[in-house]
Amino acid sequence: MAVDKTFLLVGAVAAFLAVAFGAFGAHGLRGRLSPEMLIVFETAVRYHMYHALALVLVSLVMGRMNGWLIHTAGWCFVAGIVLFSGSLYGLALSGVTILGAITPLGGLAFLAGWACLAFAAV
Question: What's this model's pTM, rounded to 2 decimal places?
Answer without folding.
Answer: 0.94
